Amino acid sequence: MKTVIRISEDIMSDEAYTRWREDIDYIVSEIDVDCIISNKRFNNTIGYDGSRPYESKKIVTARGYCQSEWQEYTLLHNGLECEKDLLDMLANLLSKTFTHNNNYYVEKFERTEIDGKVFNSEPHDFTSFCITDIEFPEKEDIINAYLHEYGKDYDEVEFSL
Fold it and tell me: How far apart, in whole angstroms, are the C-alpha atoms of residue 70 and residue 135?
């Protein structure tokens, strides 16, 4: 008997978006930054209150896969050296506003072969995970992300992508 996982794209999940949003919220809570957006058809993910003057600005552009998916963020900050790494991380996350949202659904089941016939049990475990650091993950990237999240708990992998 073998344990098999079947990995499928999960187009209904918002796990990648939620993780992206949480990362942005964390960084914004740690540094002094405001944001002005150019494309007013979208919400400002960081916010802008205009109450404080800032010394520096950083412009970040995000482009998606269709003409309407674009945004230009103007990050207003004080240029503090201690905030540089977090500001760079924020800029990197914002540049991925419309991309890098790869959600996957995993079914785990048992496979048995008897007299040359293969029998699959009903799935007994359902999990999900996401990949947000690679825009177009290959199968190897997907397996590595699964291993990082859950470890090697299978004998075979099937894809339904």
Answer: 16
How many Å apart are CA 2 and CA 116, to the nearest integer?
A: 15
Nearest to 90 by CA among 29, 13, 154: 29
pLDDT tens-place string over residues 74-119: 999 998 999 999 999 999 999 999 999 999 999 999 999 999 999 9
CA distances from 56 to 30, 39, 49 (A): 17, 21, 16
Contacts of 120 (CB under 8 A, 6+ apart): 4, 109, 110, 111
Whole-prediction pTM:
0.85
pLDDT of 49 strictly over 90:
no
Element (H, E) at 55: none
Residue identified by tokens 């914004």 is: 28
DSSP string, 72-89: EEEEEE---GGGHHHHHH
Q: How far apart are the first and last CA of the chain?
A: 25
Strands 102-114 and 2-9: antiparallel
> 74 by DSSP, 3-state: which?
strand
Which two structure tokens, joined as six digits, stand for 160?
């339904």
Alpha helices, DSSP H, located in 6-64: 15-30
Residue type (1 letter), 125: D
